[in-house]
Design goal:
- The protein is mainly alpha-helical.
- It folds into two domains: about 230 residues, no CATH class; about 240 residues, no CATH class.
- It is about 75% helix and about 0% strand.
- The protein is built from 23 helices and two strands.
- The chain has a two-stranded antiparallel ribbon with strand order 1-2.
- Keywords: Membrane, Transmembrane, Transmembrane helix.
Length: about 575
Amino acid sequence: MPADLLVAEPDEDAPEIPVDPVHLEDLRRARRRRRIKDIHWVDALYHVYLAALFGTLAVALATGAVGDTALSPGQVDDVTAHGPAVIGLLAAVAVGVGLRSGSRGGPLAVEAGDVRYVLLAPVDRGRALRGPALRQVRTGLFVALLVGAALGRLADPRFPEPAPAWIASGAAAAAVLVALSLGAALLASGRRLPRAAANAVAGVLVLWSALDVAGVEVGGTAVPASPGRAVGWLALAPLDLHVAAALAVVAAAALVVLGMAGLAGISIEAAERRTALVGQLRFAATLQDVRTVLVLRRQLAADEPRDRPWVGRRHHSRRAGWRRSWDGLLRFPATRLLRMLLMAAIAGLALRGAWAGTAPLVVASGLAFWIAGLDVVEPLAQEVDHPSRRTLYPDPEGDLYVRLLAAPAVVAVLLGLGAGTVAVVPGAGQVPLVAGLVTGVITALTGMAGAVVNTVSGAPSQGEASQELTMIAPEVAGTKTVVRTALPLVVAVVGALPLLIVEANDHAGRPLAQGALQAWVAVGAVVVLVGGWVHQREAIRAWWAEAMEAQAALKRSGDDEDDDESEEDR
C-alpha cells in the first residue's frame, strides 16, 4: 500500500482530551450552517421554476399533438385487464437495470478526490456517501414526478376519469419506478452483490413479468401475478383502485432505506473505476461525440464482446468486408443482442400506438431503431476507431466503409421484420400486414442510417472548428453545429412517417398505398444518399478543405493589397 494511504490506528491508552461543551456546540452550529449553505435554496428554486415553466409548455404542446380521441369502453376494459402486467414488466426492467448497475459499482459517481482521500480516511464511509446518494435520489424523484405528471396529463383525454387523478397516479408510479431502480442499485452496490447473482435476479424478475404479460399457463394454471403488477395498479389507479398498489410504495421506500443504510460497504475499486469512466463520458457528451459515449457506456456496463462467436462459420466468402462484419456481429454479448431485440419490440409497439391515433409515437419508433443502429454498425465503428490501420489498405476509404455496411444492413432488415411482426399481431392498434412490415424494415434502415451519420462524423476536431470560425460567420457555424446534432435523429425518424399517410388513408376510406408508396421511395432515397455520402465523404472533405484554403488565400491577398495601399498613402 502506498505510504500516503496508510492511516495510523488510534491509541487506546492515550488520555482523553477534554472538550469544552461551548466549543462543541459552536462546532455543531457551524456544521448546521454549512449544511444549510450547501443546499443553495435560491439556485434550487430557480431550477424548479425553469423546469416547471418549460415542462408546462412541453406538456401543453404534446397534449395538442397527441389529440384527445377517447377510448371505447372495450379498449378501456383491455387497458384495465392487461395494463398492470405491461407496466409491471417495465418495473421489472427498472429493478434489473438497478441491480446490474449496483453490481458494477453504481449508481454513485463521486469525485476522484473523494474516492482517494475521503473514502480511505478513518471516517464513516456511509456517512460520507449519504449526501451524494440523497442528492441523486432527490433529483431522480423530482424528474420522475414531472415526467409522470406529464404522462398522466397526456393519458387524461383518452379516459373518462378526471385529469387530477391521472396526474397524481402517473407522478406516483414514475416516482416509484425511479425509487425501485435507485434503491436496488444502492443495495446491490453496498452489499457488493456479485454480477452473476444480479443478472440472475434481474433475469428471473423480467422473465416472470414477461410470462405474466403473455398470460402463459403452466400445468393448466396461470402464472401468478408478478411483483411489478403493484406498480401497474398504482399507475392505473383511476381505472381500478387496487389495495396492493400500496405495496409498490412500501417496497420502493424500503429499498431506498436499505440501500442508504448499506452505503459503507461500497467497493473502493469499483467506485474509482466508475468515477473515471463517468468523468470521461460527461466530457465526451459535452463534445457531442456519440461514439465515445457509447464505448464508455459499454465499459461501465462491462459489455465486452465474446471471445468466440455464437455460431462457428467457415470463411468461404472472398469479400473481406462481409466476412469481417459477420465475425464482429457474431461476437456480440447476450446483453447487447437482447437490447437490440428490445429496441425492435419497442419500435413495433410505438408503430401500433401511432396507428391507434397517437401520431408522435413515430418519433419513439425511429429513436428506438437509432439506438439499435448504434450497435448494429459496430463493424464500421471499429474501422473508424482505428484510422492508422485504415491507411494500410489500398482501397479508398469510402469503398471500405460501404462494404462494411452490408452485413449490418441485413441485421437491420431482420430487426425491422421483427418490429413489423410486433406491429401486425392481432389486437389493439393492429397495423395492416404490408404497411406494418414495410414500415418496420424502412424505419430500421433509416435508424441504421442515422447511426452511420453519427459514427462516421465523430466528434468535431479542434482544427476544423477553428477554421470554420475563421472563415465562416459565427452564426452560420452555430447553425451547422445544430444541424450536425439533429440530422442523425431526423434521418432515423423519417422512416416511420409514411405510416401516418397510410393511417390517414385508412380513416378517409382511400387506398392505403395512395401517397404512401411515393413517401417510402423518398425515404429509401434518403438511405441511399447516406450511403453515397459515406462513399464520397473523403472527396467532399478534400473539396471543402481546398475551398477553405482558397478563401483564406484570397483573404490574405486582399489584406496584402490593403497594406500596400496604406504604405503608398503614407
